Amino acid sequence: MTQSIAPPLNLYERDFDLWLEMAIAQLKVGDFDNLDIENLVEELEGFSGSNKREIESRLIRLIEHILKRCYVSMPDCYRGWQVTIISHRDELRRLLRQSPSLKLHFFQSFDESFDTALELVMTEYDQTSFPTTWQFSRDIDPILSAKFWDD
Question: What pLDDT is recorded for position 45?
Fold first, then answer.
């Protein structure tokens, strides 16, 4: 019986946090020859994708709760839905302030996010009639601030 010996794990595989600290230190002093470029690029790509996924996730939740607040007649739930709307708007504003280039992704993902949110609310409230298209402004400022419902 032959045993295969696994190659030793590199620092990235053994201790991510230590690898990250070393990469930061190497970048600060310009030690590019010893920098683990391959894994650094992979992590940066993952980080970029993570921000885009967060925009999409928060946008879906925001639209979902705006639809509930506007079209579902359950006054006892209004306050909870409005709290969720405030929370997701705040997080979206923070993300977009930190990375204004994500505004393009916000616009590009809006229709798909609306479709997902609509499917969720239509499943949850199958007796409620919802519009099949977004009925309000598509500008970021109103989406992140306007009360689309009647008080």
Answer: 87
Q: Which phi and psi (to 5°) does residue 123 adopt? A: -75, -40
pTM, rounded to two decimals: 0.80
CATH number of the domain located at residue range(s) 13-143 in this protein: 1.20.1220
CA distance 120 to 126: 10
CB 142 within 8 A of CB 93: no
Beta strands, E only, the chain: none
Q: Is 84 exposed, middle or buried (0-12, 13-18, 19+ CB in 10 A)?
A: middle
A 10 A CB-CB count for 97 gives: 9
For the segment 21-34, what is each residue's pLDDT rounded down to a tens digit?
Answer: 999 999 999 999 99
- The domains of the chain are located at 13-143
